Amino acid sequence: PYAVRFNAGVNSITVSSIEIIGITPYRSLVSRGDTVDVEVRISNSSGNYVQIDDIDFTFSNSTSVRVGEWTPPLPDSLAPASEHPYTAKVYILPSSPTGIDTIDASVTARADGTEIRDSSADDAVGVWTVQSAAAITYADGTLDPATVSQGQEHAFELRLNNGGEASVILNESATTLSF
Fold it and tell me: Is 39 exposed, middle or buried (0-12, 13-18, 19+ CB in 10 A)?
């Protein structure tokens, strides 16, 4: 935890402290191009209210960005001796490197007008694995039968290739073939 001391009066000192106590991605396996909710849990261990002004993400490997606003919206007041989750959407850029990625954060807040911050979640970072998105292609020459007449009903067979890392599940009743 990081703390700042400031003069709260002639004969007293008030100590304010905030700490990031956890970062949780809502999915542990993500693909390039995905948008995923990530929760940052912040604790106010001091005896006075603090105003959470800003939360920023840092990623060890991926090129990901926060999109949209925080829930609840910032700035937000955090009660004394309490903790609260803040959630934001993170977009994994299509060019992001794949592999294991650590999600860290920093928080900036105010207590009685004085800025306080926690610059890292330390051991409470989040982790996800970034994979390449599914890339489905038709395997040329695998459509059978290749020729039909108008009005005939046929069952078709073809092969699809997945050049990406993400799994693909085809639902027989919802998958269509069009020409």
Answer: middle
